Amino acid sequence: MNPLYDLYVIESALLSGEVDDAVNIINKNRKLYGHVEKQEGMSNLKRHMRVLNGIMDALENNIGIDNFREIMTGNYVYETEDGNMENFVNSFSYMVYYSIDRYNIHYPKYDGKRCGDL
Fold first, then answer.
1. CB-based contacts of 48: which residues, under 8 Å, 6+ apart?
2. Hey, is 112 helix, strand or coil?
3. Does the global pTM surpass 0.85?
């Protein structure tokens, strides 16, 4: 599967409040790509796994936005349409933290409705 596609699907799930779907995608990819952690060197899949682990840490509120941006920047392997890493990292990290704030995510606990909804 395309690592960039994984991030788009995770972002979409988080923005719509489907946190369990996002976590299922992360866990599925962790299981699928788990063998790369044992390999030597820095493969693209290993870097992608580190980003996925960073997303999970952010959802569990173990790291802040600055640490998450560092993880994404240090393990960037994604080919975006405009080719601008900084724009993608800023946009993606903003959307993740926007979702965390909007749905009060402290995984595994979260409120699937937006804050302030009836």
1. 3, 6, 29, 33, 75, 77
2. coil
3. yes
Place of tokens 């804050």: 115
Whether the CB-CB separation of 24 and 56 falls below 8 Å is answered with: no
Q: What is the pLDDT of residues 59-102, one digit of tens each?
A: 999 999 999 999 999 998 888 888 888 899 999 999 999 999 98
Q: Output 23-26 pairs: Cβ under 8 A, ≥24 positions apart.
A: 23/56, 23/59, 23/107, 26/52, 26/55, 26/56
The pLDDT assigned to 116 comes to 59
Reference 114, options 12, 11, 18, 7; nearest CA is 18
62 closest CA partner among 71, 4, 112? 71
Q: Closest Cα to residue 52, out of 98, 101, 1, 87?
A: 1
Distance CA 109, CA 59 (A): 10
Cα separation, 113 vs 116, in Å, equals 8
In tens, the pLDDT along 35-54 reads 777 777 668 888 899 999 99
